[in-house]
Amino acid sequence: MPRRRIDGGATQPSRRNANVVIAFVECHSGYIMIEPPLSIESLQARAASELNQWTGSAARWSAAAPGRVNVIGEHTDYNGGWVLPMAIDRYTVLVAAPGLQADRIRVRSLSLGEQSAVSLSRLSDLSDDKWMRYLQGVLAEYAHRAVVCPPLDIVVASSVPVGGGLSSSAALELAMAHLIEAVTETTWSPSERIRAAVSAERDGAGVPCGIMDQTIVEQGEQGCVLLLDCAQGLISSTIPCDDPQIAWLVIHSGVSHDLADGAYAQRRAECEMICEALQVGSLRDVTPEMITTLTPDLPALSPIQSPIQSPIQSRLKVPFDEVLLRRARHVVTENQRVLAATEALKTANWSTLGELLFESHHSLRDDYQVSCEELDVLVELAQAQDDVFGARMTGGGFGGCIVALVDREALSSVATSISQGYVQRVGLSPQCYRVKPASGADVCAVFA
Ligand code: ADP
Ligand code: MG
């Protein structure tokens, strides 16, 4: 059966102008919809060839970092909670050569089809190109500790969808960290690298992220899902996940998000407000019982029309409303779901894990309000399939991907059915990836 032609290196999602007609025809002619992964080596070869055409230089250094799928535990990391992610076999690869321009780090991204540059002597002047700030941030973190790169020309090739909720940003940062270390012959510990990448995203790109993405992208383990305790910044448990009965299917809605646009920061600010009101250090300290007490009249998981004054407001230190209580309820119940999901994963209880995934999605949709119509349709379509144990949006939200836990035997038929339904209901062509748990970031080559 013929496969759809794909270009895994140029996976930047478009906002509602995908190849709708072509995909519709393909769906109805029964084509397999799952896109195969590209190896690190093929991404590297593509980047090296581009570098050579652009600068005439041969590649000298290369580093790679994976994307990640968060199985469950969304918007809990910056609330000191629990998350259950895995690094995946989709990668961002950087290839570099000594720079042709003094004092410059020049970068070309094949994913975006764009080129940018920063001055090594003025790393704190933020680039006008938002995407360059992620790299600039990492360079600045190393420079603060006297690890200063020489001028470089760099090409980025990636099979991680950009802005798709699979953490292309952390993959870019950690690949850059490993590249800097290869070039400068320096070795930092994983936790130092993670700290540098988190700071780069917060201070360089302006996204007040938690620690999950950088931790899993750096420390992912082949064939395993990791339980992270974000309050401690620790891996609490490493759970092998190689049961041949199941597969992880990621479906990209075709709608991109941009977490730097403020909605993510707004959710963080709302969580801080409720912590202040409840006089707790983080939402990790709020028990399910506290939430039940605080929200006796809060309807269970239904769409919010508008912020409503809460009847319990008078018992609280500062005014806040039902919306904030819903945010807290999501975080508190999501932490419970992560711990329950960990047990389900350890015991290969796929139906229980699947139920938890659906519940997580509903909580993110109704209480945390970070889903969108396209993601909701994908999860609904997944829920209608007998061979899907569970599904949810994954990543920050507002677009990007869902992750579905699927019966391995039925993977192709599930992907095809959901894709057909999505094209009919939304008019966009989704991209499907089967992902497998992979190892974390690394230097992948230093050429002679
Ligand atoms: P996610 O991490 O879920 O993919 P984010 O919004 O956190 O989404 O990060 C996406 C941003 O990271 C992009 O808008 C871009 O600025 C930067 N980025 C990620 N991957 C690349 C890449 N391969 N090339 C250039 N920029 C990238
Ligand atoms: Mg990101």
Supply the CATH architecture of the largest domain: 2-Layer Sandwich
Series of H and E elements = HEHEEEEHEHHHEEEHHHHHEEHEE
Instruction: Report low-confidence residues grouped into runs of 5 or more.
Output: 1-30, 301-319
Terminal CA distance reads 42 Å
Estimated helix fraction: 25-40%
- CATH-defined fold name of the largest domain: Ribosomal Protein S5, domain 2
Total of DSSP H or I helical runs spanning 4+ residues: 12
Main beta sheet: 8 strands, mixed
> In total, how many beta strands?
13
Bound molecules: adenosine-5'-diphosphate, magnesium ion
Q: Compute the average pLDDT.
A: 87
Shape: globular
What is the SS-derived class?
alpha+beta
Evaluate the radius of gyration. Answer: 22 Å
The top level CATH class name of the largest domain: Alpha Beta
DSSP strand content: 15-25%
Total tally of structural domains: 2
Q: Would you give an account of this structure?
A:
With 448 residues, the protein is an alpha+beta fold. The protein folds into 2 domains: 4-69 and 89-238 and 441-446, Ribosomal Protein S5, domain 2, CATH 3.30.230; 255-435, Alpha-Beta Plaits, CATH 3.30.70. It contains 12 helices and 13 strands. α4 crosses α5, α5 (190-204) packs antiparallel against α6 (212-219) and α9 packs antiparallel against α10 (350-366). The radius of gyration is 22 Å and the shape is globular. The chain starts with 19 loop residues before the first helix and ends with a strand. The model is unreliable at 1-30 and 301-319 (pLDDT under 50).
